[in-house]
Specification:
The chain is of the alpha/beta class. 39% of the residues lie in helices and 23% in strands. The protein has 15 helices and 25 strands. The strands form seven sheets. It has a seven-stranded mixed β-sheet with strand order 15-18-19-14-13-21-22, with helices on both faces. The chain has a six-stranded mixed β-sheet with strand order 10-9-8-11-12-24, sandwiched between helices. A three-stranded mixed β-sheet has the order 1-5-4, with helices on one face. Strand 4 and strand 5 form a beta hairpin. It is globular. The structure holds NADPH dihydro-nicotinamide-adenine-dinucleotide phosphate. NADPH dihydro-nicotinamide-adenine-dinucleotide phosphate (NDP) binds next to helix 7 and helix 8.
Length: 480
């Protein structure tokens, strides 16, 4: 049995109490490794190490910080197969997806911020002959970074890379459900020669480790990605302590399909935006609205294509839908399918747990599920399910679909399918969302602001916005 270790002060260490939690392989339902059940003492050790490292790291020239980040990026690329396999086993996602998306994007995060920091400039404001102002951008301090289980290394590094580039040192906590690639990242950082204490990774439960990071009186900044309820709890602790907060939270994204779209492209992408990663991507379009003229055709084609998706062992090349991340989450998704039925929903396909055979017989699988006949304001269409479950509903006018799309507490992403340019602009302008994809989904440009409105979060990641977050502006005014 493999023991995962914490990464503190440049070393792989056991948790102080030497207690461990079980780590499950969701494809088989078996315990395959053990995770440190760390506590406040471990967070304190990590804090002391990060605090000491901050003295040097915060004044290390950005060119030198960049070299470390680029080295980590290339080691992630070199270890692509190993990391992708680890991610697939830990999370249940198809190995192919981890190889094509998760791990390359994790490397890209380090690459982007390793080079981005070299182009990060601050402003000057001249008062003609009176004075000159210039803005210093100084790293905030020890940053607390907490990430979820759905895109484990990808989202973990999306926080760590800009924090390190900006000159912060970091205490990071991956989800206890998917710790393996964070552990492998600590080995990579050691190989890259990252100075001791610059990055510290403390494994364990959110309620213990996460909470200790959030409530630590000397950690001035928290970058969190996860559920809205957890984000609310974190804000209630961090806000009265005047911490800087970045919250990337849940979503209930609308996928709006007009009759004038490029139908084949839309259909192929809609399969992805509905079911990729078993629907466990915060950006998935789980509420699909279709212009009535093409509703019946779409329904027939979408159901047929969904039925072709192979649910299976994540390590199998043919698998399109892998395992749900945990038994608990599987049960939550199934309970939402039951709720949809009681709300009057008709299950067009899926709707059940899938029992595979042999070594996967105890794994957590759900057939991709399409539901119709629900009102836009019922619970199934308002609450985040975060699984391979979508609803389809017809609409007649732009106004009507905007009302339905904007009706949830969330506002993360929207997807729009139309060949009408004017309509694209109008709809994009009126959708309550931090991101609008038109005729595409999950296209990624790391320079763009990433995040949501309403209960989907506070602040933006990506581009220079993340470097702004991890630095504090200080204006210096010099009288002429
Ligand atoms: P959670 O909110 O349950 O957990 C996220 C992280 O927070 C985990 O590391 C968790 O640890 C930790 N945590 C839990 N409780 C606390 C606490 N009291 N204090 C500090 N940290 C805590 O989310 P999930 O892991 O279930 O992830 C799924 C959610 O994430 C979905 O709602 C999804 O929409 C959202 N998400 C948002 C994204 C975005 O960019 N907006 C991107 C990806 C996901 P532990 O695992 O041990 O509980």
């Amino acid at each position: 049995m493999q023991y995962i270790k914490n990464y503190i002060n440049g070393e792989l260490v056991e948790p102080t109490l030497k207690t461990y939690l079980d780590n499950y392989n969701p494809a088989t339902g078996e315990i395959y490794s053990l995770i440190p059940d760390s506590n406040e003492q471990d967070v304190e050790l990590a804090y002391q190490s990060a605090k000491n490292a901050f003295k040097e790291w915060s004044i290390t020239p950005k060119e030198k910080r960049s070299i470390y980040l680029l080295k980590i990026a290339s080691l992630i690329e070199k270890n692509l197969d190993k990391l992708a396999l680890a991610e697939s086993i830990d999370n249940g996602k198809p190995l192919k997806l981890a190889k094509m998306v998760d791990i390359p994007r994790a490397a890209a995060n380090f690459h982007f911020y390793g080079t981005g920091i070299l182009h990060y400039a601050s402003q000057a404001h001249s008062m003609e002959e009176t004075a000159i102002n210039y803005t210093l951008r100084q790293p905030v301090g020890v940053a607390g970074c907490i990430s979820p289980w759905n895109l484990p290394l990808y989202l973990f590094t999306w926080k760590i890379a800009p924090a390190l580039a900006a000159g912060c040192t970091v205490i990071a906590k991956p989800s206890e459900i998917t710790p393996m690639t964070a552990f492998l990242l600590s080995e990579i950082c050691i190989e890259a020669g990252l100075p001791a204490g610059v990055l510290n990774i403390v494994h364990g439960l959110g309620a213990k480790v996460g909470n200790a990071i959030v409530s630590h009186k000397n950690i001035p900044l928290i970058s969190f990605t996860g559920g809205t309820a957890t984000g609310k709890h974190i804000a209630s602790i961090a806000a009265p302590m005047f911490k800087k907060l970045s919250l990337e939270l849940g979503g209930k994204n609308a996928n709006i399909i007009f009759a004038d779209c490029n139908y084949d492209k839309m259909l192929a992408t809609t399969i992805q935006s509905s079911f990729a990663n078993q629907g466990q991507i915060c950006l998935c379009g789980s509420r699909i609205f279709i212009e009535r003229k093409i509703y019946e055709k779409f329904k027939t084609d979408f159901v047929a294509k969904t039925k072709e998706l192979t649910v299976g062992n994540p390590l199998d090349e043919k698998t399109k839908i892998g395992a749900i991340v945990s038994q608990q989450h599987q049960q939550k998704i199934l309970s939402y399918i039951e709720l949809a039925k009681t709300e009057g929903g008709k299950i067009l396909c899926g709707g059940t747990q899938i029992n595979l055979t042999d070594q996967n017989k105890n794994g957590y699988y759900i057939a991709p599920t399409i539901i119709e006949g629900l009102s836009y304001d019922c619970r199934t269409n308002q609450e985040e399910i975060f699984g391979p479950v979508v609803t389809i509903s017809p609409f007649d006018t732009e106004e009507e679909v905007l009302t339905m799309a904007n009706s949830t507490q969330y506002g993360l992403a929207s997807i729009l399918w139309t060949e009408n340019l004017t309509r694209s602009h109008q709809m994009a302008n009126n959708l309550h969302a931090g991101i609008v994809w038109v005729n595409c989904w999950l296209l990624r440009d790391l320079r763009t602001p990433f995040g949501g409105v309403k209960a989907s979060g506070v602040g933006r990641e990506g581009g220079f916005e993340a470097l702004d977050f991890f630095t504090e502006p200080k204006n210096v005014c010099i009288k002429m």
